[in-house]
Amino acid sequence: MTDFGKLAHLKEILFGMERDLGIESLGQVQKDIVYAATILSEARTEIETDDIRRHQLLSGVGRSTFFRALKAVVERGYLQHTDGARRSRYQLAGAARPIS
Predict the structure, then answer these.
(1) Cα separation of 97 and 4, whole Å?
(2) Helix axes 63-75 and 28-41, enclosed angle (nearest 10)
(3) What are 15-71's pLDDT values in tens digits?
(4) For residues 61 and 48, is the Cβ–Cβ distance under 8 A?
(5) What is the DSSP string of the chain?
(6) In this structure, is the dihedral angle defined by the CA atoms of residues 87, 93, 48 and 85, taken in order, positive or negative?
(7) 22 with 77: CB under 8 angstroms?
(8) Tens digit of pLDDT for each residue in 75-93?
(9) d(CA 81, CA 26)
(10) What count of Cα atoms within 13 Å lies in the side-chain half-sphere of residue 27?
(11) pTM of the prediction?
């Protein structure tokens, strides 16, 4: 199997997992925000907007595109503002939280 073949199979597995988790309808930038926030939350519960934005999964994403996608992710319930913070600090919410 070629490297492209391996990559194609990984993509197929990823798509299946996204479907199982119910996030297949999110746009790619929205998914990448959820992925980056999940990775960052492994080290700390509270996640800063700038940390999400600087994550390598979001490199090359424009500022306005990022903030539109972030707003949609919050509205759809994957991230929530931390303890009354109106912006800048988030935590995983609902289905995005890892099972302990």
Answers:
(1) 32
(2) 70
(3) 999 999 889 999 999 999 999 999 999 998 889 999 999 999 999 999 999 999 999
(4) no
(5) --HHHHHHHHHHHHHHHHHHHT-TTS-HHHHHHHHHHHHHHTT-SSEEHHHHHHSGGGTT--HHHHHHHHHHHHHTTSEEESTT--SSEEEE-GGGSPP-
(6) positive
(7) no
(8) 999 999 887 666 689 999 8
(9) 20
(10) 12
(11) 0.86
Residue type, 45: T
Tokens of 15: 């798509």
Query: 50 is written with which tokens?
Result: 């700038």
CB 90 within 8 A of CB 37: yes
What's at 3, amino acid-wise?
D
Domains in the chain, CATH or no CATH each? 25-96 (1.10.10.10)
